[in-house]
Amino acid sequence: MTARTARISRRLTLLLTGGIVLLWLLGAAFSVLVMQEEIDEVFDSALEETAQWLLPLATDAVEGRPASSPGLLGEPDNDDEYLTFQLRSRDGTVLLRSHDAPGAPYTGTLDLGYSESQHHHVYTIASGNYFLQVAEPLWHRQEALMESAGALLLPLAGLVPVSILVILWSVRQGLTPMRLLQGAIGARDGGNLNPIEDTGWPEEIGGTVQAVNRLLLRLRAALEAERVFAATSAHELRTPVATALAQTQRLLAELESGLTQEEAQARGRRIEATLHRLGALVEKLLHLSRAEAGIGLSETENNLLPVLRLVIEELAMQPEAARQLSLAIAEGASLRARMDIDAFSIVVRNLVENALAYGDPDTPVEIAVPDDRTISVRNDCAAIPPEILSQLTQRFVRGNRAGEGPDGSGLGLAIAETILRQTGGRLELLSPVLGQDGGFEARIRLSA
């Protein structure tokens, strides 16, 4: 968990720093574009104003001096001049120029207004037979633009490392509640499943704390249920095992004392019945284990009606189902649901076996499919009190048998209810049956 927190810190730091740098670069690029337009406007205006100011001066200077080679205006100095000029005649001859201006004409033609040569931005203005060209080196504007862009980008050199440190510190401070929650969760184990104090946490973590507390409560309830289940299972298994062992030991002792064949066969049948009961209990425990493992839900929708028919046919062939099993399916009814076929067969088998075990042996068990989402299993018996009916889906809770025979395992209804709950369905228990004074009905409601 520590390594994950460190990776989150670094990732957030890099993302936030990168975002700041990117926004700064985008802002600087936009500013450079704006400055380029402004610099062009300012320098073009300077060229135009300089030309208008120099034209009469240069014209007077040329007219007041004898015609000869091109003259120079002004005193030479060691400073670089950004603006230079040439006064030219109509035929293009250079009559007068500044000290830093080239001797050759700036341009081959004398077009009025702004133009550009290989090395200069040029502005041309005319008066009579004279043309004045004021020029600015191309590199001058580029240099001004680069200096302005550098002034915008230079702070990044100091901003990036400072931003990394500030953001890293801020992120680590912001993740402090997560580290505290990590420690609180780490302190929980099998001996300490107490809820985490849910006050004082930031709003973003409060929901996580509540979810963890709900998980801890469910885990504690599950562990407690497992402890009870293990203890009860051991007790339930110990009784038939001890009974079978005692009867076997008695059989051996009586065989030595001259037990008759009929008595030995009767004793053997009692041992066989006890072992059958033990096997049935083990099978129920395996069913419950599979149910709790979450076998109920299927990824695809299955047709469960053939499965229902097959389970009823198999149960009808067993000796304990000697009385008739009645299956009634409404016309057009279909049972399609996202439920595992094996899980569905376990649910139906347990409900029908429960009805056979606790129902009146002289009355058939009625299985009905009244619609596409409902299966009901009814048996005749005395009405079950509401306080007992509400507990029948708990493990190892048994009702009163209507006939002779050993008690059931007390797991059938619990298994059916667990599987149906996993699939989004539900198990409804009714007693007495609607319209009767007695009876018991287990009703399956499949999920839509």
From TrEMBL:
Protein location: Membrane
Entry-linked SMART domains: HATPase_c (SM00387), HisKA (SM00388)
Gene3D superfamilies recorded: 1.10.287.130, Histidine kinase-like ATPase, C-terminal domain
GO molecular function: ATP binding; phosphorelay sensor kinase activity
EC numbers: 2.7.13.3
Domain Histidine kinase: 232-448
SUPFAM superfamilies the record matches: ATPase domain of HSP90 chaperone/DNA topoisomerase II/histidine kinase, Homodimeric domain of signal transducing histidine kinase
Bilayer topology: Multi-pass membrane protein
Gene Ontology CC, one term: plasma membrane
Keyword tags: ATP-binding, Kinase, Membrane, Nucleotide-binding, Phosphoprotein, Transferase, Transmembrane, Transmembrane helix, Two-component regulatory system
UniProt xrefs under InterPro entries: HAMP_dom, HATPase_C_sf, HATPase_dom, His_kinase_dom, HisK_dim/P_dom, HisK_dim/P_sf, TCS_sensor_his_kinase
Record-annotated HAMP domain positions: 172-224
Name of the protein in its database record: histidine kinase
Catalytic activity, reaction form: ATP + protein L-histidine = ADP + protein N-phospho-L-histidine
Pfam families given in the database record: HATPase_c, HisKA
Transmembrane segments: 12-35, 149-171
Entry keyword annotation includes Transit peptide: no
